[in-house]
Amino acid sequence: MSDRLFDDRPFRILTILDCHTREALATCARTNFRAYQVTEELDRLVALRGKPTSIRVDNGLEFAGRMLDQWAYLNKVELDFWRPGKPTDNAFIEAFNARLGSECLNASWFLSIADARSRIEAWRNDYNHHRPHTSLGNLTPAEFVDQLRRA
């Protein structure tokens, strides 16, 4: 995803979701993303949550390079690339990104990248802790994760 600061400088947002729990694991805002920054974020999430068996990614430059491929190989994680022009390959992330765009990005005027990070993180926190999902039995993603851990 991308947006612009008040002075028209662009920035990008890396969104990482757990499609099973519907939890937004990361919404990282930066002026641009390099592959090593994506792998650093994945390493951080692996340390917190453990390794996934697969990751579904689009065909952006930060995902299509050797670095992410090497990270996936070394971590025994399958990379599942979307087919170009087929947003239905991952409708959940598309819906999440649309919601993030309409509820946070379009509703905010970001003064700096730090301001954008702060507001986007607050929105992610609200999404995970205060929004029940019918697909999760009307639990929030955080409640659903908590229920899974107790089981």
UniProtKB/TrEMBL annotation:
Cross-referenced Pfam families: rve_3
InterPro entries the record matches: Integrase_cat-core, RNaseH-like_sf, RNaseH_sf
Molecular functions (GO terms): nucleic acid binding
Occurrences of domain Integrase catalytic (ranges): 1-149
An individual GO BP term: DNA integration
Full protein name: Putative transposase
Organism from which the protein derives: Aureimonas phyllosphaerae
